[in-house]
TrEMBL record:
PANTHER family: 3-OXO-TETRONATE 4-PHOSPHATE DECARBOXYLASE-RELATED (PTHR22789:SF0), FUCULOSE PHOSPHATE ALDOLASE (PTHR22789). Keywords: Lyase, Metal-binding. Residues 9-197 form the Class II aldolase/adducin N-terminal domain. The keyword Metal-binding applies. This is 3,4-dihydroxyphthalate decarboxylase. Signal peptide: none annotated. SMART domains: Aldolase_II (SM01007). GO terms for biological process: pentose catabolic process. The keyword Lyase applies. One of its GO terms (molecular function) is metal ion binding. Transmembrane segments: none annotated. It comes from the Bacteria. GO terms for cellular component: cytosol.
């Protein structure tokens, strides 16, 4: 399936961006992209795997929603992640979900365990992040490995139609219409958590911004936000 090469490359890049941003450490965490109603591309593991930060396009394999190879040889030498149900159940839940990032950002996990709720504590500092927080960031309260369809459905139910969910004592799941957007949401969520932890460490209280400020926090459109932000993330990878 040669026509999938650009999407494989994009998912691999997204894995490297997530690792470069500290949203995953070592070998844990994976990103997927819907191909059609029965197939997805997902970051798999192999014997030569050196971690998410070093993901290669070849590590992104085509599989069916049931975990079997999407075409001949796709899983030769590769293993599907244990937490495949996170991706499958999230994709099945909403047709507009075309990409899923399951990551383990330490700051988000720490903030949740510290009892901090993610709220729009800032505005123009990161408008997409503020909007994400304003809509609510739900928490799936179980710290389990999500390796069955039943647990995947439970997590999706906790997600309650929002684009991101915090898995307590575990990580996050971010779903979006594009692979970059799934990772950008995760970066914004991580920044909200880092700022919340900083405010608490400085002895402050995390409070939502004034309701009247929202009229002057416009959606600046994807060209200004998502597209420019993704170009920046890719440039950072080169620079490192
Ligand atoms: Zn996980």
């Amino acid at each position: 399936m040669g026509e999938l090469a650009p999407l494989r490359a994009e998912v691999a890049q997204a894995c490297r961006v997530a690792a470069a941003r500290g949203l995953v450490d070592g070998t844990l965490g994976h990103i997927s992209a819907r191909v059609d109603d029965e197939h997805l591309l997902i970051r798999c593991r192999s014997d030569s795997d050196t971690g998410v930060a070093f993901t290669r396009p070849d590590d992104i394999r085509l599989i069916r929603f049931d975990g079997s190879p999407g075409s001949t040889g796709e899983l030769d030498g590769y293993e599907v992640p244990n937490e495949l149900p996170i991706h499958v159940e999230t994709l099945l839940a909403h047709p507009e979900h075309r990409a899923v990032a399951h990551l383990h950002p330490a700051a988000v996990v720490a903030a949740d365990l510290a009892g901090i709720r993610i709220e729009p504590i800032y505005g123009a500092f990161d408008i997409p992040g503020a909007r994400l927080a304003r809509g609510g960031v739900p928490v799936y309260p179980r710290a389990v490995l999500i390796r069955t369809a039943e647990l995947g459905k439970e997590m999706v139910a906790a997600m309650a139609g929002r684009p991101v969910v915090i898995c307590r004592g575990h990580g996050i799941t971010s779903a979006a219409a594009t692979v970059p957007q799934a990772v950008l949401q995760a970066i914004s969520l991580d920044q909200l958590a880092c700022m919340s932890l900083r405010i608490r460490s400085a002895g402050g209280t995390c409070r939502p911004i004034d309701e009247s400020d929202w009229t002057d926090l416009p959606n600046l459109g994807p060209a200004f936000t998502a597209e420019a932000a993704w170009r920046h993330e890719l440039a950072r990878l080169e620079w490192r």
